[in-house]
# Entry
Amino acid sequence: METLLEKRQLQSQNTTIGIRLRLAINFSILAILAMGVIVTVLYLNFRQQVRNDLSTRLRNIAAVAALQQNGDEFAQIDSPDHPLYEKFRQQNLKIRQSDPEIGYVFTLRKDENGVYFVVDAGEPGEVNIAPYGESYAQPSEFLLENFDTMTQAISNPEIVTDEYGSFLDAYAPIFDSKGQRVGVLGIDMDANEVTQKENRFVLISMVTFILTSLAAALTGWLLGNNLSRPITELTKNANRIAAGDLNQRVAVNTNIAEIKELALDFNIMTNSMRDMVRALESRVVERTASLSQRTDELENASRKNERRATQLRAVAQVARAISSVQNMDDLLPSIAAVVGREFKIYHVGIFLLDEQNEYAALTASNSEGGQRMLKHGHKLKVGQVGIVGYSAATGQARIALDTGEDAIFFDNPDLPNTHSEMAIPLRVGKEVIGVLDVQSEATEAFDEEDIELLTIVADQVSIAIQNARQFQAARIAADEAEEVYRRYLRNEWRSLIREQKRLGYRYSKAGVGPLKSLSHTTETMQAIYSGKTNTTQKGTQAQMAVPIKLRGEVIGILNIASERQLEWDQDDIDICEAIAERVALALENVRLLESSQAMASRERTIGEATSRIGASVNMRSVLQTAVEELGRIIPGAEVVIQLGAENEDYGSRS
# Structure
């Protein structure tokens, strides 16, 4: 009996222990599954959100950093010793140091050998910093696919691994002032920064998971002490809680202290889980709000960058307009139109100072009111009338963000809608030559960036005006030089014809012979005076008079008469004009050669005579030799050299 009783007690104990274990295991599994699903979903969402946020952040940083790169200067870097190399290294190093999570900032180019590094921002001696020209041996497929087609900042949402490590990266194109892509700027974030954020969440989740599992196992163990209704009730409530209803509570309807304690513990655990979920939800909401705020900030920054890019494009458009026009009358209206259109300013006026610097006269404008002002010759007294007069007198920019409160503002009836105005002096060196006046219909329309860019535009306009004036002066000087040279040619050829009495030559059926008399026909005279080929038809004979011109000056005439041709075609005219042009050049070359030869002969004769005179050793010999040489040079002439003068008032003679 005792043995049987002991066996029964042992069996009962084993049965009791088995139920506790099974309840603990089953409840732990349910809690683990529920928490596993929750933690897994939260982790996946959190992981994806973290990577998306970091990827977007890197893309925005790359976009802003690329705008800071001067593409024209970047294109000049051809070695690490280039002066601009260190400038770009320091600039990109500041970008890297501005955010501790940024691992690397570097610039790339691509040639026939592949992608290579240009400027890799890093401290001297720092490892994994690529020198200039080092080939990027393992570029990601994402970079290779987008390198040649990149027009804006891009980011890779996945972590990539190359010879330098594992990174989350973003890229942005670098453009020069012509809009051509001259390189790519890259920014890397170490993968450890990404995994640390993810692991931190995993650690919190694992601790919560373990604590929850332990609490579930303990609860299951305690529930094994009662096999009646409380266990069933607890099981139902546990199933409801496992289904996600954290508002369920265990009703304590038993006198068993253990069941009551278990029920209370279960309710506490449920409250803890609900608080934890609420805390997680609150954290997600806060994170979402923070991300939303960050997104708004980035959008604002993006809008500012877009506005900055638009303004820079406007400056480029102004520079393009300046470079394409040299005539002052066309240049200034073109500049006013481009500035008004690109900067979205309703009135742009360009004032130039008169020679006495007394008045600033409106020279060009883009608005209807400005056109009316141009018609009635609008001008302002320097130093006395309006913001323009102030700027012209002081050489300083003047801004009125609210014209109603500015004491210097000139209320122009042709521009009644003006609420903001800015006047920027146009300078050449230290001299003020005019004023660039811009007016807006909005109050406080101009900020520091507008002032900076419009000052650049004003400097460009000043240079353009100076260049146009110099171009006009150079053109006038060239025209004057051309006219002087034509007069010189005209006089030289007239002198040559008078001296040599060459009238010309004639070719006919009888052969070639000298021309005995000049032709004074109407056709010939018209060709000479107009400088253009004249063709006529007289009966069955076609005649053509082609002027022989040298630098626009007619030095002869080519007369052609044909009995076989009833009408000259364009090919005949072109051939005759080409021959006349080459005849003019050949004649001029011969004239210059003969003139050079004559001058050389004179110089040689003078040199020989001078050498003979210099060889004489006394005054008598010098005078005699000089007379003989002059008599030899000028045959038949009587040469007399006389020293002294009879009139003493003329001066002392030796």
Summary: The two ends are 178 Å apart (CA to CA).
